């Protein structure tokens, strides 16, 4: 398996990553949706989640944090894309 992660400059960056992404923000009984994840991505994700056992991070919590950050970072682009492709009826 190839290394898809670049080494960060400081351990502090690693701690910030863990605090941002490897934290559960969803209740344990939350009802989610089933999605397909490519096996190579699943392997990386599950290994990261297993490393954070002390935080009790779940796979769905980790993926939810990644998606939340992506949507926040690209909100303007997503809105522009939607507006460009949304054609009102009237």
Automatic annotation (TrEMBL):
It comes from the Bacteria. This is Conjugal transfer protein TraB. It comes from Myroides marinus.
